Amino acid sequence: MSGENKEKSLLAGLLLGLVSGAIFTLLYTPKKGSEVREELLSKADELPDEVNKLLADIKDLYKKSSALVIETGKEKYGKLKAVSEETANKLKIVGEHQYDKLKTALSVADKTIKEKVFTTNQQESKKEDA
Asked: Which of 57, 70, 99, 129 has the fewest CB atoms below 10 angstroms from its CB?
């Protein structure tokens, strides 16, 4: 539902409540009819001002709440960004450490394989010479 539709629904609800209250007052008032009509007319004259005041209050509340949502969103984004950067740095450090360990392991494996191949070649050469 769009903001304009919400405002219209709220306004319609407020007006319905005001009309219902007026009817209830008419039905259950101990005053004379002429007094009630006069009071209703004076209240009806005040109605547009009251509606405008309510709408102004609603708009003000909307502005404040939207500013709060934006501020909170920015704050949460900043915290999330900081945590993400910290996590990325930690992963980088761990990754570099693991890379160094893997590089060392590969170097040892390469050296071991070369020694085994060299030793095997020497043993085969000795067998052929014998």
From this structure: 129
By residue range, what is the domain housing residue 26?
A: 3-129
- Residue 3 amino acid letter: G
Which of 109, 97, 8 is CA-nearest to residue 51?
8
Q: Which two tokens stand for residue 110?
A: 């390469």
DSSP state of 21: H
Total of domains in the chain: 1
* The model's pTM: 0.42
Max Cα distance, the chain (Å): 138
In this structure, the dihedral spanned by the alpha carbons of residues 23, 25, 26 and 29, taken in order and rounded to 10 degrees, is 160
Nearest 10 degrees: Cα torsion 102, 108, 113, 116: -160
pLDDT digits 0-9 by tens, 56-105: 888 888 899 999 999 999 999 999 999 999 999 999 999 999 999 999 99
